[in-house]
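Human: I hope this is not a bother. Would you mind checking the protein record under this note? Thank you for your patience.
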Amino acid sequence: MLVPWSNSKGAVVGAISGAVMSGIVSFGQQYVAAAKLVVPHKLSVIAEDWCYDKYGMEASRNQTVIPEDYPDESHIFPLFRLSFLWITPVGVLTVLIVGSLVSLLTGRRNLKTLDPDLISPVAQWMLPAEAQQYAGSTSKKFARAREAMENERMMTISSISN
């Protein structure tokens, strides 16, 4: 976990809001592209005299550059003008912000009794010193539960064989 005080309600609400936000941005981008409200900008490629030196090509110096005519994009919602590469970071930031706020509003987790092994090493600086006594408690609890299930299975097998 990156946010130590998060709880299950914050995680669920944050995940849903992040998915919805990413979906809105993604579908909004597709809509404005399909409606030709936003068009991809093309880089101009003009061969200069360096072409022959580097690539062995002759370039005509008598070229006229025709500027592209792009529509005005200032009225488009800014999130719909973003590159598709920004959809994931927008979703992740939404999850972190909304999930943290919901966790704080619905009752934050007690950080003093939290197992530090459950928190990402990047975020462990947020834990109080008292939490270090619970290090490994979660893995020990699962090991005890696994051992109890194995013992119960062995008892069942031995009672069936008798």
